[in-house]
Design goal:
It contains 25 helices and 17 strands. With 1002 residues, the chain is α+β, with helices and mostly antiparallel strands.
């Protein structure tokens, strides 16, 4: 991941807008973030972490430090970061929660935090594609894009002040928690916990299997009526109870056979006694039937003669009726012929005339309706022709209207295109508004910077004046002291001491010191004052250079633009935004107008097509209807001619027809009347002929029936008839006698009744047979009770034995299955009985990762501190730690003394160097474990002040090795020597107002 640009405002000590171009700073690979202690260097690191993860870099830092106390409360604090990963280039903007003044009234209101994430086409893309504006979603997307969570980021990209040394000195348990969060090995701890849970589950299953075996044995003892039972007595008890059940079952079978024989004997005796009684009753009924047999025979003969006579009488009655009908139909036919003057016309001629008229009328009858509807059809044809003419006129008007539609649509489309072109300027106009606002802020910042430059110049002048005065004072004191040095030496001489100048023991004229002669302390104090003034002058000059650089940068940014020009640019930009907004509304209006125009055009086209179709259909229909009408009328005239000729040829039958018919209906009506007469005469002739044929057939049938029934004539047959009541009475008596005789005969033929003829009533003892059956049944019931009880107990015991066997097998299977789970759980959870090392699964995985970290750290540490130290891992408990053994203990091997030392015994510089190597190694391993995440930027915060120049060279060399692969390394420090080594820097300085400002040197 590479950082391109960071912008922040009203954050920490920075009240104004701060922009840092990391891409330009990191061109050489290493850049310096320097400034006095407490000026706000770490705040820039906090801003980077806050932009990505919504939190600060330091674990003990408070989020309250984000909102600047030096900025206007109404100014919105924000951090905006542009960064690039393998997934693309992104911009994230966050605002912390802060209190802003109320828009109305006094007091403040809490403004909630916000976050926005954009995908950029390039780092210079000012718009970008919005991805999310919800804080949780932005956090998830950032973790996915970067490939690291906050903890991993702080161990791989940002090494905060004091944080990476804590990892070196922390006890193993704390180190385990940190490594677990970095490498995400919680899954192995969850696996061990799951195995422990399964161990408890399988142990519970084993205990449950034991309980089920005990329950099954208890049920077996209860079923077998035993006080207690174990697994060894089950087979013998089952065999014993089964033998008892089999013996009682055999006794029950024998009792059942005896009861069945007794029941069968009782049934046989009872049935034979009943058959004997039934035979006697049947013989008595047979004697009565024999006495009534002569009377029944006489009734049967009388009924037979009456049936033969009835058949002859029925046929004779039909002959009489047929004779009457023949006479009546002949008389009616004669009267109808006389009525219509057809007496001389024979039957065949009447039928011919009827058929001829029927055929002629059937051919032309449909033309009557055609003739009647001809006028209406002609009217419809005329109306359709007129309508088609009107539709032709309407069609021409619609064609004219449609020809004008494209021109109107082109006007609407052109207006929409013009408005769309104007509306497309919305983004550029908004960007222009933002640019003007930024220029206005830069202009105000330039004015403030100009004032700060003037203030700094006054401060430099004052400092230069004070430095000159201090130098003059020091020079004056030194000159006076040199001038009065003889008096000072003379005052120090004592009699007998040699002169320090000439060595003489005599001092004839000793110089006396002046009253205002300066002391050495006064001279040194004046020198200190001079150096302090020089330092203050140098600091003031540096601050002036910073202010001038900032003023020059803002001047370059603003250029020749003044407030008047900015006002004009703002008005123009606002006008562009308003015009684009109005144009966007016009685009929608023109789009709706175009849609409505197209809808109306399609409606006109549909109406024109409908009119054209209707006109075409009406014209073609009118022409075809007129042609069919003429054809139908010709058929009508032809039919009138044919029927008139037929009417004339038949005029001899109707002397009143003296004029020619004027219409087809009149001719048809006339011929329908004649056809009705002919049909009536023909029907009458047919009825008369049919009646004669029926009479002749009935006469022949009477003669045949008389011969068949044996009567000489009809009168003799009528004499043998009986009335219906007498016939019914005779038949009832005959049927009753026949039914009674059939019942008696069937009863006497029954095998049991036939066999009863040989039985002696004295030998059939029914009560004795019943007593024997009752005794055998009682014995069977007792044997059944005993057998069922024994069988039920044997079955219950067998079922309980089966359950015992099943539960025992289940217990064995559960025990065998649980052993593997218990052992695996004990190994994963470090149970000493199976895992002597006591290292859990999660810790074992972390140990392997930790070994990779230590190896990567040693690879760098060998090139520092003259290769004196290397790191070693140990699974023993660290000194001073009372926690259980974690396997993540860390020691330092001192190759100079060949001893192993506690990391806390290292000096400040040694601790920084070893901690830095450990942090860089941890970053490399976390990067690899994170799926090969590309980490292009690294920040190291503080600790360089504890290094001597040689060690500092080693550290800078190791950091330079990181830049060989294209990584950017930012060093956060106030060490003066680093300013000489690293030209690219970000300088942070306090301002007189209390805040800080940033100057970038590339």
């Amino acid at each position: 991941m590479y950082l391109h640009r960071l912008e922040l405002r009203a954050i920490g000590p920075y009240p104004d807008l701060v922009t840092i171009d990391f891409a330009a700073l990191a061109a050489s690979g290493v850049f310096l973030l320097e400034g006095p202690t407490g000026s706000g260097k770490s705040t820039i690191i906090d801003a980077v972490v806050f932009a990505l993860y919504g939190g600060l870099a330091g674990s003990d830092a408070s989020s309250d430090r984000l909102h600047s106390q030096h900025a206007d409360p109404a100014v919105e604090p924000f951090v905006e970061l542009v960064f690039e990963t393998g997934a693309g280039t992104y911009r994230v903007r966050r605002t912390p929660q802060y209190d802003r003044p109320k828009q109305r009234g006094t007091g403040t209101v809490k403004q909630q935090a916000s976050a926005q994430l954009f995908r950029l086409a390039a780092p210079t893309d000012v718009a970008g594609e919005p991805m999310s504006s919800r804080i949780p979603e932005v956090g998830v997307e950032i973790a996915r894009i970067v490939g690291l969570d906050r903890a991993q980021f702080l161990q791989t990209v940002v090494l905060p002040q004091g944080e990476f040394a804590r990892f070196l000195r922390s006890p193993g348990e704390d180190r385990r928690k940190l490594l677990q969060s970095l490498f995400g090995t919680q899954v192995y701890d969850r696996t061990a916990d799951e195995l422990a849970a399964r161990r408890r589950a399988v142990q519970a299953e084993v205990e449950g299997a034991d309980d089920r075996v005990r329950d099954a044995l208890a049920r077996f003892a209860q079923a077998a009526d035993l006080a207690e039972a174990d697994e060894s007595v089950v087979p013998g008890t089952v065999a014993s109870l089964r033998a008892t059940a089999d013996a009682t079952g055999a006794a029950r079978t024998a009792a059942a056979a005896a009861a069945t024989a007794a029941t069968e004997h009782e049934r046989s005796v009872t049935a034979r006694a009943a058959a004997l009684e039934r035979r006697a009753a049947l013989l008595r009924r047979q004697a009565v039937l024999d006495d009534d047999a002569p009377a029944i025979e006489q009734a049967r003969a009388a009924v037979a003669m009456a049936e033969r006579a009835a058949r002859v009488a029925a046929v004779a009655d039909g002959l009489d009726a047929a004779t009457v009908r023949a006479d009546d139909t002949a008389a009616a036919a004669a009267r109808l012929r006389d009525q219509h003057a057809l007496g001389a016309v024979d039957v065949q001629e009447v039928a011919r005339r009827r058929d001829s008229l029927t055929d002629a009328l059937s051919d032309v009858r449909h033309l009557v309706a055609v003739e009647a509807g001809a006028a209406a059809r002609r009217s419809v044809i005329d109306e359709a022709t007129a309508t088609a003419s009107r539709l032709t006129d309407d069609l021409a008007a619609l064609d004219t209207a449609l020809e004008a539609r494209p021109t109107e649509r082109a006007r609407i489309v052109e207006a929409a295109r013009t408005a769309s072109t104007t509306a497309a300027d919305a983004d550029a106009a908004a960007h222009e508004v933002a640019r003007v606002q930024s220029l206005r802020a830069d202009l105000a910042a330039r004015d403030r910077a100009e004032q700060r430059v003037a203030d700094a110049e006054r401060i430099v002048a004052d400092a230069r004046r004070r430095a000159t005065e201090a130098l003059d004072a020091e020079r004056s004191l030194r000159e006076r002291r040199i001038a009065g040095l003889a008096g000072e030496l003379g005052a120090a001489l004592t009699p007998g001491d040699p002169c320090p100048v000439c060595g003489s023991m005599a001092h004839p004229s000793v110089a006396a010191p002046q009253d205002d002669h300066p002391t050495i302390q006064a001279v040194e104090s004046a020198g200190d004052a001079t150096r302090l003034a020089d330092q203050q002058l140098a600091d003031a000059a540096a601050d002036l250079a910073v202010e001038r650089a900032e003023h020059l940068r803002l001047t370059d940014v603003v250029g020749a633009v003044d407030s008047v020009a900015l006002d004009a640019m703002a008005v123009a930009a606002d006008e562009r935004v308003r015009a684009a907004h109005d144009a966007a509304a016009l685009v929608l209006e023109h789009e709706r107008e175009r849609t409505a125009h197209d809808t109306a055009t399609r409606a006109l086209e549909r109406e024109r097509n409908d009119l054209d179709a209707r006109r075409t259909v009406l014209a073609s229909t009118a022409a075809s209807d007129a042609e069919r009408l003429e054809t139908d009328l010709r058929s009508v005239h032809e039919a009138i001619g044919r029927l008139a000729a037929l009417l004339d040829s038949d005029s001899d039958s109707d002397s009143d027809n003296g004029s020619s018919p004027v219409s087809l209906r009149a001719v048809v009506d006339e011929l329908d009347g004649r056809l009705t007469v002919l049909r009536a005469v023909a029907d009458a002739d047919d009825r008369a002929s049919a009646a004669v044929r029926a009479r002749d057939e009935r006469s022949a049938e009477v003669a045949r029936v008389l011969d068949q029934q044996g009567f000489p004539d009809v009168d003799a047959a009528r004499a043998g008839l009986l009335d219906p009541d007498t016939v019914a009475r005779f038949r009832s008596s005959i049927s009753a006698a026949e039914a009674e005789r059939a019942v008696v005969r069937a009863g006497l033929d029954d095998p049991a009744v036939v066999q009863a003829a040989d039985d002696d009533p004295e030998q059939l003892d029914v009560p004795a047979a019943q007593a024997e059956r009752v005794r055998a049944t009682a014995e069977l019931d007792e044997a059944t009770r005993v057998a069922v009880t024994a069988a039920h107990r044997a079955e219950a015991v067998e079922q309980c034995a089966t359950e015992v066997d099943r539960t025992v097998r289940a217990r064995q299977e559960t025990s065998a299955r649980s052993r593997a789970v218990v052992r695996l759980a004990d190994v994963a959870n470090g149970v000493a009985s199976v895992n002597p090392s006591g290292i859990t699964l999660g810790t074992y995985v972390l140990m392997r990762r930790f070994e990779d970290v230590v190896a990567a750290a040693n690879d760098r540490l060998r090139g520092m501190l003259a290769g004196r130290f290397t790191l070693e891992t140990s699974d023993e408990r660290e000194s001073g730690s009372r926690s259980r053994r974690t396997g993540l203990a860390l020691a330092v091997h001192d190759h100079t003394t060949d001893t192993v030392r506690d990391p806390r015994s290292l000096s400040g510089g040694e601790t920084f160097t070893v901690s830095l190597c450990l942090a860089l190694g941890l970053a490399d391993v976390v990067q690899a474990e994170a799926g090969g995440v590309s980490l292009g930027t690294l920040f190291v915060d503080e600790g360089f002040g504890t290094l001597d120049p040689e060690t500092l060279d080693d550290v800078i060399g190791q950091l330079s090795r990181l830049t060989a692969g294209g990584r950017q390394v930012g060093i956060v420090s106030h060490v003066e020597e680093l300013k000489q080594r690293i030209p690219e820097r970000i300088a942070v300085r306090r301002t007189p107002a209390g805040g800080s400002q940033v100057t970038t040197t590339v």
